[in-house]
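cache lookup: miss for this entity combination. No prior model stored, computing from scratch. Input as submitted by user K.M.:
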Amino acid sequence: MTNLQSLEFFIPELILTITILAALITDLFVKKSKTNMIGWVLGVGLVVVGLSVHNLSSAPPTTLFLDMIVIDPFSSFMKIVIILSTLLVIVASWVNDELEKYRKGEYFTIMGIMVMGLFLMTSSVDIIMLYISIEVVSIMSFVLAAYLKLDTRSNEAGLKYVIYGAFSSGVMLFGLSIVYGLAGSTNYFAIQDTLSSLDGSANPALIMALLMIFAGFGYKISSVPFHFWTPDVYEGSPSTITAYLSVAPKAAGFAMIIRFFHQVFSDSIGLTSNSIGSTDLPWPEIIGVLAVVTMTMGNLVAIQQKSIKRMLAYSSIAHAGYMMLALPVLSMEAVESIMIYLFIYVFMNLGAFFIVIFVKNKTGGESFEDFEGLGWKMPIVGAFMTLFMLSLTGLPPTAGFVGKLYIFKTLVGAGSEFLWLVIAGGVNSVISLYYYFHVVKVMFLGGKRSDVITYPPSTMFGLMIFTAVPSLILGLYWNPLASWVKDSLVFYNQVM
Amino acid sequence: MDSINSYLFISSMLFCLGLFGVITRRNAIAVLMGVELILNAANINFVAFSKFNGMNIDGHIFSLMVIVLAAAEAAVALAIIINIYNNMNTINIDDAAELKR
């Protein structure tokens, strides 16, 4: 589709651009104490964007801007997940005390720009667009991670993030340049066409390039061995940004990986050993091993943490591992299970982080000691946290169970060669039970009982309800979600 | 010097130098310079492939985009480094170790 024709299908992003500009301009006219208003501007804009994404989700899949990005139900689903998590984080930013000392205008504006980058990440089918969108998201998250200018921990988080981020996207770029040289085009479909007709002579270059590209992908979803930035950045950043980084870029990162592998390296059936060019490497096994190592590492290190925020950082690495379990299969069911898991993960993980924010507002800390006796002092918060921990572990009747169920069902259905992934996933769920329940134990058994019961302020309470209800309901009644995901399971595929 | 191999040789040399710089340097700005070398190595690749394989100009466009993004990234990184210097009086990345390893 030509550029002018595409604009009609690009309306969500256009509205988002206007929202970002509006947020930037509003910031000029408000006092420092009133900068929460920019959050309203962005929030309202995002709701409109969400509605127009929803409107377009029934449009026939097509490419826009001369094969640069696509619009299809899959990208619409991911965009709605991103909008939901952004809205929740915006509301949480209003009540996060860490940000009180600073103007929040740029904070919200930069968040809007990040949403723009995430949108493009979910829908790009061209390696130029892929790289630009990754960089837009990365650069904005560097700024947000270092947003607390006077806090040396936040500075350090920003520095580490910028070094890891710039480095891994540079390595990825080098890999992309080799792919461009081999395929002669930057378009996914043209690349697939050329790579599948290559003889074996280009294999070393192709393997090299793929490993380099995986460095960029792995950094975005914090998979081992590119996870080293995750704990430090998550611990040092403002808590709201930590929450945001642990869901939205991860969702977009998975969308990007699925689209890349699905449209460049697989014949619509699935990822098989010989589908990646003509290399003889066992790619499904390699990705499977990475997934298992990622979740095992995340879980084992999470056990030793003293800070709940840092523990949740490692737990988010482990959850990336669970989602990666379905990647080696890469059938339609596998993509479906990843999408369901992502949707559920957004709510349970954001909820856990919101409680960390709330406790930090109250006590000024985020270690296990600050949570001691929380279940008695604030029974409601304690009950919510217990629910989120149950859900993150994946115990029935919570939503986390359904997510894991879908992943394991895909693996079992895919054949006996994937059975070891199921076993590894099961063992890891048991390991994670230990540290998630350590939180519950500290909240209800540790500390002194107090007779004074505190209730969370209404905004925070609303946020907890908003994240807790899906984490519980989706575990009992997930048909609407499952059918929505099934409807969204349409990729744009070019017939060459 | 009119075959693509010499260009690819130079770009891989540049990539390795960048990698070496990122790994060995402890000064944050020197690490950034290493990253810039990696990006420019990829740029040379893009332009060389585009010119010698008789391809479309996608490669040239890509390298222009990379230059712009590298500038943006450097701006943000330098701002963060200045901030670190204001607060900690150092830009050695080993000294920024307040968060537990």
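stored under new cache key. Residues 4-88 of chain B form a domain with the Helix Hairpins fold (CATH 1.10.287.3510).
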